[in-house]
């Protein structure tokens, strides 16, 4: 459950006095998400989302995240819009935490994405990459290549207890990725966490993208690789080439990829799979028993790591098919 900091109705009503969104009529915690405390707000001015940023989020990064949402909205990408306070700022404080209110986005996320969902996600991701090209702020990716080995060092001793053979697999993957990670591919603003629960649909049509709190400046094709991992595998771990083809071809129809980007996709997908396996593994090991946070199984991503390690040509993902 993603409510780490509880709030009272009285303190929330006081906080809302700094916004021109009407008076509070009701609020409730939102169970989805793992990073911050989220609440659905109903006011006389409409529906909104309140986020209290917890310890994993660096307060100094908030102008990037919130400014990016505003920038993307201005360029026609449908995503939540930060609500400005009466003093013009987008960030306040509530219960000792930095906090912000964003507009409510209609829709639900797909529990069983099909190829059409994947095509719409590919096109939306490409539009986001193009829309972010002139965003003035930058933010370093805190979960990229140079961060993976330090994170692994915190988990290595317990890895084989989670999955026999996992330690050897990770050591092999880290060595390969550190030796061959691409350094000269096109870079820009990436979402970095565009999983199905961060994409809303209405009547099977994509209605918007949410949760930009991992967004950063990095390799654009790495974002594509992350979407292959997030959208194109069935629950049993089978890669669906039809979904990959739909996602990749829709993306390239909006933003063509260079030959170097295409060639790097297998390596980027291996790196993305390792990144999510490591953060899941860390949480699996370190989340206390009885915690309200639902731990995600790292073995889902170790299976994806093994799949990508056997891919030598991006055609295997359905490119052009």
What does this structure look like?
By secondary structure, this protein is α+β, with helices and mostly antiparallel strands. It folds into 2 domains: 9-103, Phosphorylase Kinase, domain 1, CATH 3.30.200.20; 115-317, Aminoglycoside phosphotransferase (APH), C-terminal lobe (Aminoglycoside 3'-phosphotransferase, Chain: A, domain 2), CATH 3.90.1200. The chain has 10 helices and 9 strands. The chain has helices at 9-16, 62-74, 115-131, 145-153, 159-162, 166-180, 220-231, 241-254, 259-286, 299-309; strands at residues 24-29, 37-43, 46-52, 92-94, 97-103, 187-190, 199-202, 205-209, 216-219. The strands form 3 sheets. It has a 5-stranded antiparallel beta sheet with strand order 1-2-3-5-4, with helices on one face. A two-stranded antiparallel ribbon has the order 6-9. It has a two-stranded antiparallel ribbon with strand order 7-8. The protein starts with 8 loop residues before the first helix and ends in a 12-residue tail after the last helix. The mean pLDDT is 94.
């Amino acid at each position: 459950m993603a409510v780490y900091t509880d709030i009272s109705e009285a303190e929330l009503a006081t906080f809302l006095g700094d916004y021109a969104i009407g008076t509070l009529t009701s609020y409730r915690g939102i169970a989805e998400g793992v990073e911050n405390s989220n609440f659905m707000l109903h006011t006389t001015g409409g529906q909104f989302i309140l986020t209290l940023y917890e310890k994993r989020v660096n307060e100094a990064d908030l102008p990037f995240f919130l400014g990016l949402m505003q920038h993307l909205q201005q360029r026609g990408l449908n995503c939540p819009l930060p609500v400005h306070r009466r003093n013009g700022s987008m960030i306040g404080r509530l219960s000792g935490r930095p906090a912000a209110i964003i507009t409510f986005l209609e829709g639900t996320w797909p529990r069983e994405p099909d190829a059409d969902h994947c095509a719409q996600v590919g096109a939306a991701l490409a539009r986001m990459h193009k829309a972010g090209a002139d965003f003035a702020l930058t933010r370093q990716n805190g979960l990229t290549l140079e961060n993976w080995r330090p994170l692994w060092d915190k988990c290595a001793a317990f890895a084989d207890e989670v999955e026999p053979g996992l330690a050897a697999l990770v050591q092999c993957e880290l060595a390969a990725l550190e030796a061959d990670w691409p350094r000269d591919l096109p870079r820009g603003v990436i979402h970095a966490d565009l999983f199905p629960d961060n994409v809303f649909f209405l009547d099977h049509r994509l209605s918007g993208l949410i949760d930009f709190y991992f967004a950063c400046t990095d390799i654009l094709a790495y974002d594509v690789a992350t979407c292959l991992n997030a959208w194109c595998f069935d629950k049993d771990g089978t890669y669906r080439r039809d979904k990959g083809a739909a996602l990749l071809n829709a993306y390239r129809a909006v933003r063509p990829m260079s030959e170097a980007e295409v060639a790097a996709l297998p390596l980027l997908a291996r790196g993305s799979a390792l990144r999510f396996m490591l953060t899941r593994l860390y949480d699996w090991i370190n989340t206390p028993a009885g915690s309200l946070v639902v731990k995600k199984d790292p073995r889902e991503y170790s299976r994806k790591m093994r799949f990508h390690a056997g891919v030598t040509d991006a055609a295997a993902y359905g490119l052009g098919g």
